[in-house]
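[Meeting: bench + compute handoff]

Bench side (C.D.) handed over the final construct sequence. Compute side (W.E.) agreed to return the predicted structure before the next meeting so the bench team could plan truncations. Sequence as handed over:
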Amino acid sequence: NMNSVYPASDFSQTEVLTANTIYATPLFVPPGGGAIDRVTVAVQTGAGTNSRLMYFAPGTDGHPGALLFDFGTVNTSSSGDKQLTVSATLPGGPGWLAMVPDGAITVYMFSVNGLGYIGGPTYTSGTAGSPYRANGGTTAPNPFGTTSISYLGYCVRLGVRAA
């Protein structure tokens, strides 16, 4: 099945996010790290006012751990590809882009079933799924933590642009 070797699939799918809840999407940065100048999120239907964008190092279990960057907020009250101008150098290796919206926005997502390089079809269930957790606000927690953590079968379509 060739689907399991692609890094992502089915980019047209959408998901309604819960306000004041953190969602994390895996990102692998090439060895040596990489400078970025944009962080993006693809919004189908806006809600609320803003979404906070962050980057977490992996913890000892591979899930989001220490907060490395709190990039600030981007207006997600309307639809479109939203981008935040940043100046950061992400460390090489795996990490987690994350967002917490202050409204129930609808975002584009991709199924973790397509993340063959992380674990293939087994990645879609149990503690191997893309994590999210209720954090009761729009702040950037440090560390990400495990309070009220749950696992999704999809990842929010977050991205970065190389500087």
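W.E. noted at the follow-up: Confidence is low (pLDDT under 50) at residues 1-9, 114-125. C.D. will use this when planning the next construct.
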